[in-house]
């Protein structure tokens, strides 16, 4: 039986890159939901002034993850989602690498915040993959 021709635009990105991008978006989603849970359950008693900040960060990264999930699929939204994910990728790389750098600069002298390193690495990797995908294949083939 012959294969059916696709009815939606094709993407030139390597399948492995798209799988890695989707996996990193899933990790960003998990981290973002954990941040929401933490901000709503733990922070109000300990640091209520930072609740809106953390909820805003989580919301931004959930939008980034959603744009990424759309950008790895074929369809009419790909032309919007791929560049949007690339723009968010710049912010994610900057925030992720900045967070990891700040924690590393504190060294052994300060209180080590391991969860910040994990968050920073997840966001930086996701951002880098989104940037590579947006650069390699900004628009699907016609």
Walkthrough of the structure:
Helices cover 73% and strands 0% of the residues. Helix 1 (15-41) runs antiparallel to helix 3 (51-71), helix 1 packs antiparallel against helix 5 and helix 4 packs antiparallel against helix 5 (114-136). The longest helix is centred in the middle third of the chain and has 29 residues, at 78-106. The chain has 5 helices and no strands. It has one domain (15-136). With 142 residues, it is mostly helical. It has helices spanning 15-41, 43-46, 51-71, 78-106, 114-136. It starts with 14 loop residues before the first helix and ends in a 6-residue tail after the last helix.
Features:
142 residues; mainly alpha; 5 helices; 73% helix; globular; disordered N terminus
């Amino acid at each position: 039986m012959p294969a059916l021709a696709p009815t939606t635009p094709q993407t030139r990105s390597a399948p492995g890159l798209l799988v890695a991008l989707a996996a990193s978006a899933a990790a960003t989603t998990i981290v973002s939901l954990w941040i929401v849970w933490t901000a709503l359950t733990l922070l109000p008693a300990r640091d209520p002034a930072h609740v809106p900040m953390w909820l805003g960060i989580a919301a931004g990264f959930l939008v980034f993850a959603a744009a990424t999930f759309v950008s790895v699929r074929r369809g009419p939204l790909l032309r919007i989602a791929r560049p949007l994910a690339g723009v968010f990728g710049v912010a994610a790389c900057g925030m992720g690498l900045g967070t990891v750098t700040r924690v590393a600069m504190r060294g052994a002298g300060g209180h080590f915040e391991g969860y910040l390193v994990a968050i920073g690495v997840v966001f930086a990797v996701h951002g880098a993959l989104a940037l590579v995908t947006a650069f390699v294949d900004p628009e699907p083939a016609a």
